[in-house]
Amino acid sequence: MASTSGLPPLDPLFKSNAKRTYSVFASYPDAGLRDEEKSARLRLAVKMNDEYKHCKQLPPALVAQQVPVGPARPKEMRKAITAGPSSETSRMIASIDTTPEQRLSTFTNASKLSQALTLHKTTRTVKPTYHAPWKLVRVISGHLGWVRSVAVEPGNKWFATGAGDRVIKIWNLASGELRLSLTGHISTVRGLAVSPRHPYLFSCGEDKMVKCWDLEANKVIRHYHGHLSGVYSLSLHPTLDVLVTSGRDASARVWDMRTKAQIHVLSGHTATVADVKCQDSDPQVITGSMDSTVRLWDLAAGKTMVTLTHHKKSVRALAIHPTEYSFATGSAGGNNIKKWKCPEGNFVFNFGGHNAIINTLSVNSEGVFFSGADNGSMTFWDFATGTPFQNMEDIPQPGSLEAESGIFCSTFDMTGTRLITGGADKTIKV
């Protein structure tokens, strides 16, 4: 049997091994792991000497300026403030550092300092603007499938809806009467937009088609080919003759409205791009995707400017404020509606409280912000402060299933006084 007399003693080896293990697992909150007191004291003493030797005592010039202020508290009333687990460290420091205690007296302008501190501590609460409560005035039925998209025309006379029955219907906004049905899609119509500068209506659907309808002849005049799968959303640029579509092929595509040419493929998302919005100033295109990110795009270069990764689940809805240069995004789960500031996409705050899968968001120029969810719950918020002022439940059409109360799309009319929603019970509500 080999002799063990030539081997080093095991105790220091165990200790160094334990120390190494401790340094690996130190962040793990286990009371069983304790630092060795001797080495901890040594480390603290070295650190204190290193970092604080020049400022342990006040310079003579400052000491001369000090004046005594009032009677000090009696010793028994003084309390050491301990901050949780680090109290052991502070006791250790006190035992190592034996320099005489230097009491800093309050400066003569103490009152000013305390005023500044109290001012800093008061939280400034912004009062939300008062918004009148919203009520349901009309239910329009006529579609034979889920109503998935809605768009109001710029003149505010009529609006269009697209549904799972593959039909686009044009309705009178004032009376709710059906004026026209447009057929041509061979699958659910997922996106609609009416051009403010041309007599055109644009539609897209799960049949990979993007169509341009001439509203004077009521027929399709252009197709935009390129998407590899269903097209879920479209948006018109407010000032350029440009159309942006997005869909299940994880891309957004920018089209020249007139020549039907594909200008850019905005690629980068890794899952369905569920919503896309355009505005006339940068970022001109914003997309929300099922990969739970939001991207802001440089339209000229066709590249991502910023990727926002704050959402935990798929982002299904976007809304751009008409005047405030900010936008909101909606997803599923808690803290699921977020407000952002353009152009960098800085996070502003969460709209807390609407815990459901958010399918649609809309905001009007008065700052009324609407969120509609998969379970039929609706919330109206003050967009400036994030305060909810009204919660409602969608009541499914009589004869529908309880599960058919989901809200899929919403939009405010041009005046901002009417809200139109489309739902799973195949109705449109105003």
TrEMBL record:
GO terms of biological process kind: mRNA splicing, via spliceosome
Q: Which GO terms describe its cellular component?
A: catalytic step 2 spliceosome; precatalytic spliceosome; Prp19 complex
**Keywords, sorted A to Z:** mRNA processing, mRNA splicing, Nucleus, Repeat, Spliceosome, WD repeat
Q: Which InterPro entries match?
A: Prp46/PLRG1-like (IPR045241), WD40/YVTN_repeat-like_dom_sf (IPR015943), WD40_PAC1 (IPR020472), WD40_repeat_CS (IPR019775), WD40_repeat_dom_sf (IPR036322), WD40_rpt (IPR001680)
Source superkingdom: Eukaryota
Q: Which PROSITE patterns does UniProt cross-reference here?
A: WD_REPEATS_1 (PS00678), WD_REPEATS_2 (PS50082), WD_REPEATS_REGION (PS50294)
Renumbered ranges of WD repeats: 140-181, 182-223, 224-265, 266-307, 351-391
| General function of this protein | Involved in pre-mRNA splicing and required for cell cycle progression at G2/M.
In the record, the note on similarity to other proteins reads: Belongs to the WD repeat PRL1/PRL2 family.
Specify the protein name. Answer: Pre-mRNA-splicing factor PRP46
Organism of origin: Russula ochroleuca
